[in-house]
Amino acid sequence: MQLIEPELNAPSTKFINELGLLESEHGKYVPTCRGVVPTRILAHITTEGGASGATLYAHFGGPPYGYAPEVVRACVAGLLRGSKIRIQSESGDAISAARDAGVRDVLEKERSFKTATIYPVGDDPVGLRGRARICKFFEDRLGIRLDRENDAIADRVSIEFPRQMARLRDVFERLRRLPGNRPAPAALVALETALDSCYRRIRQTEPTVQEVRRQLDVLTDGIGRLAIYAAELDDKVIDQVRRADDVARYQLAQLQRIGLASPGESPPPASASTRSSPASVHGVASTQSPPT
Predict the structure, then answer these.
(1) Structure confidence by residue, pLDDT tens digits, 195-223
(2) 165, CA 20 to 30 Å: which among 116, 151, 224, 263?
(3) ∠176-235-285 over CA atoms, to 5°?
(4) pTM for the full model?
């Protein structure tokens, strides 16, 4: 079904002119669902507090409407894409967007549609302000501009968060190459948990966006710090820190042998001696602020 494809490229004119499901805005098609038929179907779903696909067929298939089954399904697909309804499939899939798991089974198979229950969308748990903040995070921290829609946000999470997790693993590996065996910075550990928590829900749009909203402060701080560590902590810097640690330990041993240092004196950790340098791993976060 064209209405649940990732991109609405050259949609059928029946979705635009006949049913009024789509309108062209700023060069793209938007599921406004302002036509008479989708408006009637949404009103019925809202008034009843939900309806099965079979009920919609029965109600709108006979007089005075006489809508064909494919028209009813198309309107439900448009309303879903426009974030005006949500669907619970018989198999238990909670569908709130056209990209969610189970959506094709419900909207393209007659039996699955009849047994699914369609509900009005109800309260928006993320809200316009929440989506605006999420989009600002993507633009400021990752240089990505997004439409303020749940589908667009969840799609970008599915692409970008695995990239950031790979980047984070690379930084953790570099940290392990430094002398001193220090624990990873808390902000990066928290970022790892937040990225995983958001990506784990990726098959369902609304839970994904809700989790990004909940983790937004951790993501904003963590991605900013990750950018600093990734930029500063290259092979050259790691070699410099390791050499400095070797020199410190060797020179202290020499001083101890000639009596200029007490035998029980311990060498300073390399990270302590370089803590004030932006190139030092544990100094990066304390001497520079994440980019804004």
Answers:
(1) 999 999 999 999 999 999 999 999 999 99
(2) 151
(3) 60
(4) 0.73
* Coil/strand/helix, residue 117: strand
Hey, which residues does 24 pair with through a beta bridge? 29
Q: Contacts by 217-220 with C-beta closer than 8 Å and gap 24+?
A: 218/190, 218/191, 218/193, 218/194, 219/137, 219/141, 219/191, 219/194, 219/195, 220/137, 220/140, 220/141, 220/290
The pLDDT-based confidence of 260 (bands split at 50, 70, 90) is: low
- Which amino acid, residue 25? E
C-alpha to C-alpha distance for 116 and 96, rounded to whole angstroms: 13
Whether the Cβ atoms of residue 128 and residue 83 lie closer than 8 Å to each other? no
- 10 Å CB burial of residue 94 (0-12, 13-18, 19+) is middle
Average pLDDT value for residue range 157-175: 96
